[in-house]
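User: I'm curious whether this sequence folds into something compact or stays loose and floppy. Could you predict its structure so I can see for myself?
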Amino acid sequence: MTNSQALDHVKSTTACIAGALAGLLGLTSLNGFLLYLAVSLGVGALYSAVNCKGEPARYFLKPSEPVLNGTVGNCFPFILFWTLFYSLVYIYD
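Assistant: Here's the prediction. I'll summarize afterward.
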């Protein structure tokens, strides 16, 4: 349970940062969501490789949990930060 909470904290934080990055870069439509998908899956793979020492089955119930867990749930903070930073930079010049 503690490992899942730590993973969720890391993924939610990086989703917010990725949203800010997408907004600052001016990404729109599918490009922004592809950035989110790449960041979310990349962070999960990195978490699995670094924190789980390449053996996520020892720390999680399912070995795919670090990569896939929280991908859909953290999409909403990503969209919030994406639209906030996009509007601050490109709409309200």
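Summary: The first helix runs from residue 2 to 25. Residues 2-91 form one domain.
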